[in-house]
Amino acid sequence: MEPADHEMYRAAIHGDLEAFELVIRKMSRPLFAIAFGALQNRDEAEDVVQDAFVKAWKARWQVRNRAHDILMRRRTIPLEETLALRYRGGESLHGY
Fold first, then answer.
1. Which of 3, 66, 81, 93 could form a disulfide with 77, with the two C-beta atoms 3.0–4.6 Å apart?
2. Radius of gyration (Cα) for the chain, nearest Å?
3. Would you give the end-to-end CA distance of the chain in angstroms?
């Protein structure tokens, strides 16, 4: 990821509306291509992409908090357990 992109995403996650608009401009076309490929319907693909951006804006604080949590866990929990925490229920990769 380019440093400028990283800064744009960071600003968007922290509530910068202008940065989020840049994210939308940058990502709309690739996301539409994926949605259209899956749905084979232009209107539905546009709706899916729009819904994704609305949900992303509403949930941006969760991304910020989750990133912080992951960084803090890496300082105290072995990598294997950190990866296991990404799965629902926090089950270990080895089942214990």
1. 81
2. 17
3. 35
Q: Cα–Cα–Cα angle for 31, 6, 19, nearest 5°?
A: 70
Q: Looking at residue 40, what is its pLDDT?
A: 95
Segments making up each domain of the chain, as ranges? 1-58, 60-96
Q: In this structure, which amino acid lies at residue 65?
A: N
Q: Measured in whole angstroms, how far is the alpha carbon of residue 4 from the centre of its chain?
A: 17
Cβ 21 vs Cβ 8: under 8 Å? no
| CB atoms near residue 14 (< 10 Å) | 13
Q: What is the pLDDT of residues 32-85, one digit of tens each?
A: 999 999 999 999 999 999 999 999 999 887 766 665 555 555 555 555 555 555
Instruction: Quote the pTM value.
Output: 0.63
In this structure, the number of other CB atoms found within 10 A of the CB of residue 60 comes to 17
